Amino acid sequence: MDQGEKTIDQVGEFGFIRSIMKGSVNDPEKLIRSIGDDCAVIGPYEEKVLLITTDLLLEGVHFLPGKIRFRELGAKAVAVNLSDIAAMGGIPRHLFAAIAIPRGMLVEDLKELDAGMKDMCRKHGVNLLGGDTSASHAGLFITLTVVGEADEEGVLYRRGASPGDRIYVTGTLGDSGAGLGLLKGELTGPNEIRERLIAAHNLPVPRVETGRLIAESGLATAMIDLSDGLSSDLGHICEESGVGARIFREHLPLSEALKTLCGANNIDPHELALSGGEDYELLFTVPRNNMDSLENQMKEQGHPVCKIGEIVRGKEARLVSADGTEKEIIPSGFNHFTPESQ
Question: Exposed, middle or buried by CB within 10 Å (0-12, 13-18, 19+), for 251?
């Protein structure tokens, strides 16, 4: 079947993105990187480059009506954009917001949305410089563009991993996916656990400072933020770098809240850690000789990281269990155009 005859469901989100990359650049001057990483990279400007990223949040796709406060939604919308800047080791500077508003939406709710956006901007010293508004006939749309900056030589791309590098993550994995399961009524648990896991989903923390420190160390080779899930985002690093990976199942960092919830619901927390999505932690690679230095630097600066695997030759990503058995990691995080996401 000709590519043009296929539906978006058949091609998939990332297949479609790859199909439209050709011909997207008309003036390459000062363009270092366009489509393919968490941000476009433009420059240099006085030894700095610009990092530019855009994310869309759509009612019913990225957030559930009635399951998130508008102030949380505003903060989350900013956070997911800042996470892209963090993934490339940059500092966010400016934000532009375009919002399509359904008729009948309360002004009070819009003010709460705005307050949440400004809360997150204030925490990270980001200027909210304008944007656009429009009426919507299909729910609330929020599109944000963030402009950041980084030292030209300090930007971390997805394409820099090499065989022998070790794979690290920040924070814990799977909490956001569990929070979504609780919001959708697919999981149940005691209130104190519910609150923590739902907060992980509704109010993620962008690892801006951590990403900057990793980049400034000069010890890492590639980085990405975990927006679609470890299984999918690891695949992006492998594809861009032309490598494979081995992830050690027992090394995946899990919170006590997640382990308790999964135990009560008879599900494997490692599966949520692999495919839950929207953790907005950072996944990065470090040459073996740099491991100790990186770990010590991050610990001393209050940003401990966890080693979960290694980069290998080939193209497959594999999950290694404690008994030595291995299985292929199939990307199973969020993809907008798979049947499961409809």
Answer: middle
Q: What is the DSSP string of 234-258?
A: HHHHHHHHT-EEEEEGGGS---HHH
Q: Which helix (H) or strand (E) holds 134?
A: strand 127-136
Label the pairing between strands 282-286 and 317-320: unpaired
SS3 141: strand
Among residues 101, 120, 154, the one where a domain terminates is 154
Model pLDDT for residues 242-272, shown as the tens digit of each residue = 999 999 999 999 999 999 999 999 999 999 9
Q: Which residues are CB-neighbours of 157 under 8 A, at least 6 positions away?
A: 33, 37, 88, 222, 223, 240
Domain boundary residue among 154, 169, 184?
154
Whether residues 213 and 305 share a domain: the answer is yes
Residue 66, Ramachandran bin (φ over 0: left; ψ between -120 and 50: alpha; else beta): left
Identify the helix (H) or strand (E) that includes residue 338.
none
Element (H, E) at 43: strand 40-45
CB 266 within 8 A of CB 205: no
pLDDT digit string, tens, across residues 185-239: 999 999 989 999 999 999 999 999 999 999 999 999 999 999 999 999 999 999 9
Q: Count of residues for the chain?
A: 342
Please name the residue ranges forming H helices in the chain: 8-11, 13-19, 70-87, 107-123, 175-183, 191-202, 208-217, 230-241, 256-265, 269-275, 291-300
Model pTM above 0.70: yes
Q: Pick from 28, 8, 27, 29: which is nearest to 19 by CA?
A: 8
Sequence letter at residue 129: L
